UniProtKB/TrEMBL annotation:
Name of the molecule in the record: ABC transporter domain-containing protein
Record-level Gene Ontology MF annotations: ATP binding; ATP hydrolysis activity; L-isoleucine transmembrane transporter activity; L-phenylalanine transmembrane transporter activity; L-valine transmembrane transporter activity
Cross-referenced SUPFAM superfamilies: P-loop containing nucleoside triphosphate hydrolases (SSF52540)
Entry's localization field: Cell membrane
Organism per entry: Limnohabitans curvus
Length: 621
């Protein structure tokens, strides 16, 4: 199959370059047709294998197909979402047992496969509850425990599983149909992978992989997404287990839950490149073939070899051999090694770099009667003995621009975190347009209309600038399809003057560009309330002025309300209606900047003995 069969979400609407688009569209269509033709031919060729009369080759082919289903379905969770599930093989085992039990009970084949999928999916759903309370290494470690757990259960639930004796299935000589079913499931697995990559679901997974907390604060509901992808991968693992149990006609606990075989599909994907479209295909083809060869020629060493390969790849080629530098020099391998964002570049025209647009696709927000847009009532945030925010009460009206000042550690960012529910306040209430945010999750708050930036920029590093902006647009109150979100993202990107970086990975941007990207991403949340955290620090005066202009513009034009944490008073002075000052978590002043900077407590907090001579506009902290 060619690499161009995926339809890119941003495949149209480049009106400024009609001729170029016409020819590119045509070459895209040609590529797609070639890809589909090659793919169909490849599948037909594979389907003919069991009819060639060589049972040995068919068995190897069958093993490769099963390994691909397992490896690829594992990679939806690990490569796409960044959760390394070392216990994925237990879904294969549960599927194999559920299938075998029904088949022994003389149920039809398809009913038994369906039953295996349902039972395994339910098991995954139950397991997901405790598992997704964990992250990173702890998640991987916990999933590793699933295999011995299931193995012990299979040994001891003798009335159902027949214990150590295993289950003999009432079948014989089903290699040919089992191979064809496995091939069909493989094709489906590949199609699902393409679909995931081009869907909102796929972008949710990628945002979770990059930064779960930020994903939530731009509107992604991460809990159901995590559950769904685990259940999906478990269902495909179950089919692999069922079909292989059918082909082997015998299963026992050690075969379907054994740790030595469990890590084989994982090793295969890691070997070539987790998260790459062709990584699982290449890894499985190379290592499964090698495994078969070893089984015949070097008996007893195959498990050792897989362990060694994982070790060596991890040590010398982290990310898989397809990500090694030398691969870029080999045309075929280079094509197979393309990252997700490179497929995007393949079908999209060059970014339009017109002058920054002043019109953004944002609603115009009206005031909510006399109700303040944001109201804090005795908000307290305590970390052990450290009270970061001490019973702060304040109100901000719709359309106000408010500066939030205070020395380092005074609680400004913590206050933002209490509003956007990164932290749950220890006490007090946060009301947004009169609604208590107490029971709201981070993503709900984002959809209600709270957008924010982070003091240290936190872009989705391995996604492009365009994808970074498109993600909030896909998860807004009125969510856009990936295709429309990618199109709309361009407007925000041009506003942030990042048009020339449209297709580049966000982790390759300069600090200034990352700040501009964060600001644009916060605007793409279409917020009524924009929380801006020290966006101007470390920038040149011209760059600071640009942020000042943007903040004034989004308020004047769209009625957005802004709270701006900033130490550069000369910038605040140009745009804020008033400032609020914090000291050690306590609100010490609230009023026009010129007055607040003359407030004795503020002066002594900021300037110590030099305080009385200070004037507004002269200070930076
Ligand atoms: N997750 C946390 N765990 C423990 N303490 C925390 C946590 N987050 C913030 N703090 C503490 O809360 C206090 C306020 O920190 P915060 O980052 O809100 O200050 P700030 O005013 O934003 O400072 P800066 O201007 O340096 O960003 C500090 O003492 C900090 O150490």
């Amino acid at each position: 199959m060619g690499t161009s069969i995926e339809r890119h979400p941003d495949a149209a609407d480049f009106g400024g370059l009609p001729q170029r688009c016409g020819s590119e569209d045509m070459s895209k269509s040609l590529n797609a047709v070639t890809g589909w033709a090659l793919g169909t031919f490849g599948v037909a060729a594979l389907a003919s294998l069991p009819f060639l009369g060589n049972a040995y080759l068919t068995t190897i082919g069958f093993t490769v197909l099963i390994a691909y289903i397992l490896g690829q379905s594992w990679d939806w969770v690990a490569g796409e979402m960044g959760y390394v599930n070392l216990g994925h093989y237990c879904f294969y085992g549960i599927g194999a047992y559920a299938f075998a039990i029904l088949l022994v009970g003389n149920w039809p084949l398809w009913v038994a496969i369906g039953f295996a999928v349902v039972v395994t999916a339910l098991a995954a759903l139950v397991i997901s509850v405790p598992l997704f309370r964990l992250q990173g290494d702890y998640f991987a470690f916990a999933t590793l425990a699933l295999l011995p757990l299931m193995e012990v259960l299979a040994y001891n639930l003798t009335p159902i599983t027949n214990g150590a004796d295993g289950i003999v299935l009432p079948v014989a000589q089903v290699l040919q149909p089992a191979y064809l079913i496995a091939l069909g499931v493989c094709v489906l697995t590949f199609m699902v992978t393409l679909r995931i990559n081009a869907s909102r679901f796929g972008y949710a997974l990628k945002s979770i992989r990059n930064d779960e907390q930020v994903a939530e604060t731009v509107g992604v509901r991460i809990a159901p997404i995590k559950r769904r992808v685990l259940v999906l991968s478990a269902a495909f693992g179950a089919v692999a287990g069922a079909v292989q149990a059918w082909q082997m006609s015998y299963i026992d606990p050690a075969t379907v839950f054994g740790l030595n075989v469990a890590l084989v599909p994982v090793a295969m994907v890691l070997f070539a490149g987790s998260g790459l479209r062709w990584g699982p295909v290449v890894g499985v083809l190379v290592l499964a073939t090698l495994q078969q060869w070893l089984l015949v020629n070097v008996k007893g060493f195959q498990a050792t070899l897989y362990g060694l390969i994982v070790l060596l790849i991890g040590r010398f080629m982290p990310g898989g051999f397809l990500r090694a530098r030398w691969v870029k020099k080999v045309p075929l391998l280079r094509a197979l090694a393309r990252e997700h964002h490179e497929y995007m570049g393949e079908t999209a025209t060059v970014a339009q770099t017109s002058a920054a647009s002043k019109e953004l696709p944002l609603p115009r927000y009206a005031a909510v009667g006399s109700t303040p847009l944001i109201q804090l009532e005795n908000v307290r945030m305590q970390f052990g003995g450290n009270v970061a925010v001490k019973d702060v009460s304040l109100q901000i009206q719709s359309g106000e621009i408010v500066g939030l000042i205070g020395p380092n550690g005074s609680g400004k960012t913590t206050l933002f975190n209490c509003i956007s529910r990164v932290y749950t306040p220890t006490a007090g209430r946060v009301l947004f347009a009169g609604q208590d945010l107490k029971g709201c999750s981070r993503d709900q708050i984002a959809r209600l209309g709270v957008g924010r930036t982070y003091q240290i920029p936190r872009p989705f590093g391995d996604l492009t600038v365009q994808e970074n902006i498109a993600i909030p647009l896909m998860f807004n109150e009125q969510p856009l399809s990936p295709r429309d979100a990618m199109r709309e993202a361009r407007v925000f990107i041009e506003y942030a003057e990042l048009g020339h970086r449209l297709r580049e990975r966000a982790d390759g941007l300069s600090v200034q560009e990352k700040k501009a990207l964060e600001f644009a991403r916060a605007l793409a949340c279409k917020p009524r309330l924009l929380l801006v955290d020290e966006v101007a620090s470390g920038l040149t005066p011209a760059e600071v002025q640009r942020f000042v202009d943007h903040i004034r513009h989004v308020r004047d034009r769209y009625g957005m309300t802004v709270i701006w944490v900033e130490h550069i008073f000369s910038a605040l002075e140009k745009v804020v209606d008033r400032v609020i000052a914090l000291e050690e978590g306590t609100l010490i002043a609230d009023g026009p900047l010129a007055e607040v900077v003359r407030n004795e407590r503020v002066l002594s907090t900021y300037l110590g003995s030099a305080a009385p001579k200070a004037k507004a506009g002269e200070h930076t902290c």
